[in-house]
Design a protein that fits this description.
302 residues; Methyltransferase, Cobalt-precorrin-4 Transmethylase, Domain 2; 11 helices; binds S-adenosylmethionine; 41% helix; 19% strand; alpha/beta
């Protein structure tokens, strides 16, 4: 553990303002941290990180950058998949002794494709309170800006690396009626997209979100087939990526008859321009074209 004196004043700094952070109640706090932009940290996260007796980090050097940015002099210790067997029980003993422990991963929300699940299990088994301190996660950042349906989504994490296992996993996911959200390494992006196009369908709409919250943030929205072709040609992109894939059935271009029926239905319920905007949102077609078509339909229907 780093050796910050027990009685050092606990607090954090934002700009010129130094704010005290009293120790939180004894508990295991699961603290979400930024996925790139260090300003994406909640005030509560800073309070808990500054006030906790111990900050358990996936990598203390990575978390130190965030702590330094807010002048937090926390007592840090490592908790990751390679030392969980020894570090877990040590943290549980500290919690049982009435200490507060904040668990963080390198970026985003701990336990989301990151260490922490075993520690939460152990804490709950020991009767210790577990408290989420929510904040950034690459999955939700990508989903919300993907342009794909967000009413139901399935977080699929990382796909298996081996082609056979990846294929089986994709088959198991293919009929889920929700937007699928995957984490992937940039090196495997092109292969993963090709496998998705193969198993889920080349026409399914998808979005690759890259370098979210960072200077070179980018969203590429197309079909799985187009995205697979793009990255096969362009090679591995720089930075981190999330892939979002539309639910089955969302993708095929809407048939003219379907669009007319949708426009008639919406046009009966709301003004034409609003109906066209709503239909554009639902179909991905251009609003002006839909507006023109609705005017034609209204004229024809009398
Ligand atoms: N716990 C983290 C969270 O809540 O987002 C995820 C950790 S997981 C080990 C790392 C993966 O998250 C990366 O491979 C990438 O797929 C995704 N990721 C994390 N930060 C990202 C960013 N800034 N832009 C795009 N993807 C990101």
């Amino acid at each position: 553990m780093s050796n910050t004196p027990e009685n050092a004043p606990r607090g954090y700094q934002i700009g010129q303002a130094w704010l005290p952070a009293p120790p939180p109640d004894p508990a295991l706090y699961l603290v979400a941290t930024p996925i790139g932009n260090l300003a994406d940290v909640t005030i509560r996260a800073l309070q808990v990180l500054a006030g906790a007796d111990i900050v358990a980090c996936e990598d203390t050097r990575v978390t130190r950058v965030l702590l330094d940015r807010y002048a937090i002099r926390a007592k840090t210790t490592a908790y990751h998949e390679h030392n969980a067997t020894s570090a877990g029980p040590r943290l549980i003993r500290a919690l049982e002794a009435g200490k507060s422990v904040a668990l963080v991963s390198d970026a985003g929300t701990p336990l989301v494709s990151d260490p922490g699940f075993r520690l939460v299990e152990q804490a709950l088994a020991a009767g210790i309170r577990v408290v989420p301190v929510p904040g950034p996660s690459a999955a939700l950042a990508a989903l919300t800006a993907s342009g794909l349906p967000s009413d139901a989504f399935f977080f699929a994490g990382f796909l298996p690396v081996k082609a056979g296992a990846r294929h089986s996993r994709l088959e198991a996911l293919s009929a889920i009626p929700a937007t699928l959200v995957f984490y992937e390494s940039p090196r495997r992006l092109a292969d993963a997209l090709a496998a998705m196009a193969d198993v889920l369908g080349a026409d399914r709409a998808a979005t690759v979100g890259r370098e979210l919250t960072k200077a070179f943030e980018e969203f590429r929205r197309a079909t799985l087939g187009e995205l697979a072709a793009h990255y096969a040609k362009a090679g591995a992109p720089k930075g981190e990526v999330v892939i979002c894939v539309a639910p089955p059935g969302e993708t095929a271009a809407p048939q003219a008859g379907d669009v007319d029926a949708l426009l008639r239905e919406l046009g009966a319920e709301m003004p034409a321009s609003k109906a066209a905007a709503e239909a554009a949102r639902m179909t991905g077609l251009a609003k002006q074209d839909l507006f023109r078509r609705l005017v034609e339909l209204k004229a024809a229907d009398g």
